[in-house]
């Protein structure tokens, strides 16, 4: 909500029903895109536009996947680049299941450093200084610089929003 410019006043926290995810979908993730597509006719889409193909869906989720499993990140990236007809529905369901996993500390740090590369030109920070910044502060700075400098590639990334939930959860 913060990235949309809204103050989140929800009493529901991420710690509610920790690690309990529904086993079935009312509508599978791929079908949800079709439902949303019909709702967004003649309306402005949000920060992350509805994907038109597997490549767009992958570009939105790649850092979220990287934060959990670097080998899977490489595997999916290769598959999507080689097969322009990758199944959007299958990929969407895979991403939902991957994003339900808690990112590891080292993979989270690695992912944030990759994302930092897109915004680091706006102010020089040495590698040593970067390693001394806590992950929440680093992600907040990446978010701020992405928006301030209109770094569309990162703005459209699910990682800008969803990774913060996991980081804040580990602090409490």
Characteristics:
172 residues; globular; mainly alpha; 2 domains
Can you characterise this structure?
α2 (54-66) packs parallel to α4 (88-99) and α7 (135-148) packs antiparallel against α9 (159-171). It is built from nine helices and no strands. The model has no long low-confidence stretch (mean pLDDT 85). It has helices spanning 29-39, 54-66, 70-82, 88-99, 105-119, 127-131, 135-148, 152-155, 159-171. Helix content is 58%, strand content 0%. It starts with 28 loop residues before the first helix and ends with a helix. It is mostly helical and 172 residues long. It has two domains: 25-37 and 49-101; 104-172, no CATH class.
Topology:
Elements: H1 29-39, H2 54-66, H3 70-82, H4 88-99, H5 105-119, H6 127-131, H7 135-148, H8 152-155, H9 159-171
Helix pairs in contact: 2-3, 2-4, 5-7, 7-9
A few lines on this structure:
The protein is 58% helix and 0% strand. With 172 residues, it is an all-alpha fold.
Q: What structural class do you assign from the helix and strand content?
A: mainly alpha
Distance between the termini: 20 Å
Round the Cα radius of gyration to an integer and report it.
Answer: 17 Å
Strand content: under 5%
Q: Mean pLDDT, rounded to whole units?
A: 85
Number of domains: 2
Low-confidence stretches: none
Question: Main beta sheet: strand number and arrangement?
Answer: none
Shape: globular
- Tell me roughly what share of residues is in helical segments: 55-70%
Oligomer state of the chains in this structure: single chain
